[in-house]
TrEMBL record:
EC number: 2.6.1.16
Chain's role: Catalyzes the first step in hexosamine metabolism, converting fructose-6P into glucosamine-6P using glutamine as a nitrogen source.
Residues passing through the membrane, by range: none
Species per Swiss-Prot/TrEMBL record: Geothrix rubra
Name the record gives this protein: Glutamine--fructose-6-phosphate aminotransferase [isomerizing]
Keyword DNA-binding: no
The protein's assembly and partners: Homodimer.
Active-site residues, record numbering mapped to chain: C2, K605
Organism lineage: Bacteria, Pseudomonadati, Acidobacteriota, Holophagae, Holophagales
Length: 610
């Protein structure tokens, strides 16, 4: 949601900024703009509503200006028009700024500035910032001092980048809330909302923290607090290859990311699977006594990550016997959760920037819970906010619909459940050995899942015009039914529901007729017989069953329209495998319906508002 880029160096900034904004498109946006300066000519501000192509069509990409800032806006307050697009300017046109977040006191500041004779052109909250900087400069403050003072006057959350038309040597930035990352090059410095736009240029980055102000020059960046005191921030080297954020021959990022799952899983498991009978090497700052003393675990997350949390509950309770509650983060934060001594709060978030999840984590910490983030983005807010982090090493996920981040979350949750069971003495050694061996074999099984694509494409061709889908599963595959339904609805806009198969008879069975595809997950586990009975009830009402079963299971052959055989794995690892065909089904149906798979309507990759 909203993206910022900035560049100061020797090259023309225009194409670097447009390419940077392009790689932030996945975050979601509905207008875009940029400002160019630093070559002695007048400041150029170009903005456009709609897709980035509209902006790129208006910008001279060969413009030599070596300094600039750019922005993609996802409208929250005010329509996605060109006038409301960033950058915004001061009345004298010299100070420009881009902003993610919201200035809560902007009305009061506008009144104050208007009373002092300043003028405004838009209705946005952002505009009061450049106007305030210019106003303070009129009173004699140099640009950096005016910037710092103006930041101090803003209430709310912000990531800000700002430049002055007549100051060719710096970009000023500030962070309190939404992320900002500085990229360090050779004689050039970059700024962005996340690391993806930086990857083609540099892998050396600094993550700004809340309360940081930064001055970017061609030589690097100086960071201070609001009072101007220098602040040290570590330089990180991002392990991603630049091609990790490119489509690499695939038609869409989502397809590439589905196919990357074997590798993503291997990377996530690397060095985390013990050899022989050693204990599970999960790098956690909690002592064994802390883990033994846990009385309860609360998991908070949103969307797909919440589905991972439901699988996590199943695994943790089975393996470690700690009671687990799973909550939507947006509900948890407002329900005055009861936190007993010994509560561990796990926030699951791919991006590490989801406002609801961050707030829920904060709420739990304030009430005394220990906190752990399961996250895919190193240096993101969740990883800095939580006491401990387990990273999923899925690599950058660009498609808005989460795929490889989800399956790697499931892998990390399995490891965590095993670790808790091991430390708490509730884990049967044979079960541990079986699950660890199963995890070792999973990447190879995932490769076999990818090979199912042609069969899934046939399903997609047959069912692409359905109005509704029902997904059914039980036990740890019930959340996978929810995830299959979410994937389909968010990218193909077909209504879909996921249900525990046993719950079907309590309502959704009324929907079943010859036009309703029922996607059934029936691994050969303790729930198989029950699921089979539930599906017979659906078939008896003419439901069209598309089944995923364990290799060799012929139980559904007589009643299902089609059956896909999935490699036999331990039932508690089945969720990871059974997810893949559902991702591919959603993907191919969306493509056949002509939908924008990587950027579905109305959705944003990281949801930084409530
Ligand atoms: C669905 C999807 C979303 C996210 C949700 C949470 O495909 O991607 O439902 O899972 O917005 O995002 P994170 O995991 O970044 O907190």
């Amino acid at each position: 949601m909203c993206g910022i880029v900035g560049y100061i160096g020797q090259q023309g900034a225009a194409s670097i900024l447009v390419n940077g904004l392009r790689s932030l498109e996945y975050r979601g946006y509905d207008s875009a703009g940029l400002a160019l300066a630093g070559d002695g000519g007048p400041l150029r501000v170009v903005r456009a509503s709609g897709k980035l192509a509209n902006l790129a069509g208006k910008v001279d990409l060969s413009d030599p200006a070596p300094l600039g800032i750019g922005h993609t806006r996802w409208a929250t307050h005010g329509r996605p028009t060109e006038e409301n697009a960033h950058p915004h300017r001061s009345g004298d046109g010299r100070v420009v700024a881009v902003h993610n977040g919201i200035f809560e006191n902007f009305l009061e500041l506008r009144q104050e500035l208007k009373a002092a004779g300043e003028t405004f052109q838009s209705e946005t909250d952002t505009e009061c910032f450049p106007v305030m900087v210019a106003h303070l400069m009129k009173q004699g403050r140099p640009f950096p001092a005016a910037f710092r003072e103006a930041v101090g006057r803003m209430r709310g959350i912000y990531a800000l980048a700002c430049l002055h038309a007549e100051d060719p040597d710096r970009i000023l930035a500030a962070r309190s809330g939404p992320p900002l990352v500085i990229g360090l090059g050779d004689g050039e410095t970059f700024l962005a909302s996340d690391v993806v736009p930086l990857l083609p240029h540099t892998r050396r980055v600094i993550f700004l923290e809340d309360g940081d102000l930064a001055e970017l020059t061609r030589e690097g960046a100086q960071i201070t607090d609001l009072e101007g005191n220098p602040v040290e921030r570590a330089v990180h080297t991002i392990p991603y290859d630049p091609v990790a954020a490119e489509k690499g021959g695939y038609k869409h990022f989502m397809q590439k990311e589905i196919f990357e799952q074997p590798q993503a899983l291997s990377n996530t498991l690397l060095n985390r699977l013990p050899l022989d009978a050693e204990s599970i090497p999960l790098d956690l700052p909690f002592s064994d006594a802390d883990l033994r003393g846990l009385s309860r675990i609360h998991i908070v997350a949103c969307g797909t990550s919440w589905h991972a949390g439901l699988v996590g509950k199943f695994l943790i309770e089975q393996l470690s016997r700690v009671a687990v509650e799973v909550d939507y983060a947006s509900e948890y934060r407002y329900r005055e959760p009861v936190i007993q001594p010994g509560t561990l709060l796990i926030g699951i978030t791919q991006s590490g920037e989801t406002a609801d999840t961050l707030a829920a984590m904060k709420e739990a910490a304030a009430r005394g819970a220990r906190t752990l983030a399961i996250c895919n983005v190193m240096g993101s807010t969740a990883t800095r906010q939580a006491e401990a982090t387990l990273l999923t090493h899925a690599g950058p996920e660009i498609g808005v619909a989460s795929t490889k981040a989800f399956t790697t979350q499931l892998a990390v949750l399995t490891l965590l459940a095993l670790k808790l069971g091991e430390v708490r003495g509730t884990l049967d050694p044979d079960l541990k050995a079986g699950l660890l061996q199963g995890l070792r074999e999973l990447p190879a099984h995932l490769e076999r899942m990818n090979a199912l694509e042609p069969r899934i494409l046939q399903w997609a061709q047959r069912w692409k015009d359905a109005d509704d889908f029902l997904y059914l599963g039980r036990g740890p595959c019930y959340p996978i039914a929810l995830e299959g339904a979410l994937k389909l609805k968010e990218i193909s806009y077909i209504h879909a529901e996921g249900y525990p198969a046993g719950e079907m008879k309590h309502g959704p069975i009324a929907l079943i007729d010859k036009n309703l595809p029922v996607v059934a997950l029936m691994p050969h586990d303790a729930h198989r017989e029950k699921t089979l009975s539930n599906l017979q009830e659906a078939a008896a009402r003419d439901g069209r069953i598309l089944a995923l079963v364990t290799e060799g299971d012929t139980g559904l052959a007589a009643i299902a329209e089609d059956v896909l055989e999935i490699p036999a794995v331990h039932p508690w690892l089945a969720p990871i495998l059974y997810t893949v065909p559902l991702q591919l089904l959603a993907y191919h149906i969306a493509v056949l319906r002509g939908c924008d798979v990587d950027q579905p309507r109305n959705l944003a990759k990281s949801v930084t508002v409530e």
